[in-house]
Amino acid sequence: MNKFVRQEVKLRARYLCEYCHCPEYFSPDPFEIDHIFPLAAGGTSQPDNLSLACSGCNGYKSDYFVAIDPGTGQLSPLYNPRTDDWAEHFRWDAEFTYIIGISAIGRATVDKIKVNRESIVNLRRVLVKVGEHPN
């Protein structure tokens, strides 16, 4: 992927993982460009199919674009940062440390991609305390 497309994806995402909202600036590992609809499933490398993801979210997402909604047991699409409104599918808990899925897409995404991994929750706690949380 060329550097101009990578930069476009990063700018559009405001340098946040588009799944767990971790800021790239505070990440020990470089962020990755995720294919929202995986190449293996016929997706493209066009910018409208790309998102910025931390290595943890990208690893858990892998080639998935659907997952089981733990609330209903039904198959649901995963969150698509290009077409879905984050606030329709997620909200922050009162301390801004946990992302809560409020729709089938949100619940399936929180569960499958593990956006509330211990390391990310700990980072969010610190970011809240120093006024850098991306809420």
Short overview:
The chain has 135 residues and is α+β, with helices and mostly antiparallel strands. Helices cover 32% and strands 15% of the residues. It has one domain.
Structural features:
single chain, 135 residues, two-stranded antiparallel sheet
Chain-wise SSE layout:
Blueprint: H1 3-12, E1 32-35, E2 50-53, H2 55-61, E3 66-68, E4 75-77, H3 86-89, E5 90-92, E6 99-101, H4 104-113, H5 118-129
Written overview of the protein:
The radius of gyration is 14 Å and the shape is globular. The mean pLDDT is 96. It is built from 5 helices and 6 strands. By secondary structure, the chain is α+β, with helices and mostly antiparallel strands. It has a two-stranded antiparallel sheet.
When the domains are counted, the total is: 1
Number of helices: 5
Outline the low-pLDDT stretches.
none
Tell me, rounded to a whole number, the average pLDDT: 96
Largest pleated sheet: 2 strands, antiparallel
Helicity, as a percent range: 25-40%
The percent range for strand residues is 5-15%
Strand arrangement across the biggest beta sheet: 1-2
Pairing-aware structural class of the strands and helices? alpha+beta
